[in-house]
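Reopening this ticket.

The earlier resolution said the output was attached, but the attachment link was broken on my side. Pasting everything inline this time so it's all in one place.
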Amino acid sequence: MRRIYRGIFIVWVALRYGLDELVLTSFQKPWLRAVARIVSFGRKLDAPRGQRLREALERLGPIFVKFGQVLSTRRDLLPPDIADELAWLQDRVPPFPSKVAIATIERAFRRPVGEVFVEFDETPVASASIAQVHFATLRAPDGSVREVAVKVLRPGMRDVIEKDLGLMAVMAGWVENLSADGKRLKPREVVAEFDKYLHDELDLVREAANAAQLRRNMDKLNLVLIPEMFWDFCHPEVIVMERMKGVPIAQLDRLRAAGVDIPKLARDGVTIFFTQVFRDGFFHADMHPGNIQVSLEPESFGRYVSLDFGIIGTLTESDKEYLAQNFVAFFRRDYKRVAELHLESGWVPVGTRIDELEAAIRTVCEPYFDRPLKEISLGMVLMRLFQTSRRFHVEIQPQLVLLQKTLLNIEGLGRQLDPELDLWNTAKPFLEKWMSEQIGPRKLFEQLRAEAPRYAKLLPQLPRLMHDFLENRPADHRRELLELLAAQKRTNRLLQAIIYGGIGFVLGLLAMQVLVRVRLF
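Inline output:
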């Protein structure tokens, strides 16, 4: 019955804010248009549709707010006005009672909160859709007292999430089956994607592990601070971490007054992002201003402070190489290479004409080069690229959705910090250096070193494997293999002769130089 009541409430809110217009008015059948007019009668729907959708999600509660945040990242599926409005959703929801937070902590650690912490501030300092944060002090094993932040999961979230996700899946199926636009927007895929992100965020130990990995990756970069996790006090519902002291990056006046180099801060943000993406393939995928601060402490002045690691993006080596080649080709305005990469990766059908795709990409990107960031809308570039992609039946890659979202966050952050920042020229040297490292001798040595244990195990077995192979092959194949082996031996002898001859020639030259110097002296 609770699920039925919740479903009725969701439908009522949808009708109250006119969300039915987003679906029913797209139908072509007259009787469905009549239904749309009936349910819309008597309501004031003066606000834009994106604003009404955002307000409806806020009314439905934290899970739907989080859904709106994730939905805002799918600019390949949403009209620009709706995506822009949903992007305003922030993790600012009413906190739950401190007594409930304390009860959760005591249940997780099986002792009173006074025995866990020296001091515990019952007033939360931040409240989000999934958890809220309290400050406390913790006695370390060496007897010292550490200032910490305690993140506590909202109570009953798992049950609420399962119920709401079930209802979302049902409604997504209705939208997809009843509306032509619904099929294009793929609502069931969006809900499934949201399901994955949300369940990842529900396990706070997973978030702690993400933070620990990022902390190791960024340790020697000296551009960003990431809190240390106290593993003895980490639980799926509660994690305790180092308290970070910084100024929210949105407070630019305060940062300028403190003497922070704002243009450098903007460049450092681009460096951090591209390092995480292309060097590590492991990047913070929720980099909105609410999760970023700037340190004013003397030992770390002007460095970023990164928070909230519930959403992390990962890329494979092939993903990184493909993206880097695309970026470098874009920066060089080599649109033909971009089109070829799309074809090589299988993102477009085999019969796609390279020249047509090249011309379409040039039309999208060329107007945006050689401009400062204040004149470039990366969101607009992405939207036009998505429109071009649909024309050429490009498949949107799921592993790149978080990267697209993070790129938009970086754009907003860069525009806020330094409107004159040239994003293209800032990123181009980094990517070109990364590409040179991928194909140079250093990368070859690293790959050989990584494969050395495997080679050491296989090499002693090669004679036996070759013998067994020859014994089990027909005579013709065996004769061919023997001829190939003989040719290989001849080639090896020739190479050895060339190498030894070269060494002898060099030694001869050295000897002649020694003799000349002896005669001179």
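Reporter confirms the inline version is readable. The mean pLDDT is 77. Residues 253 and 427 are 27 Å apart (CA to CA).
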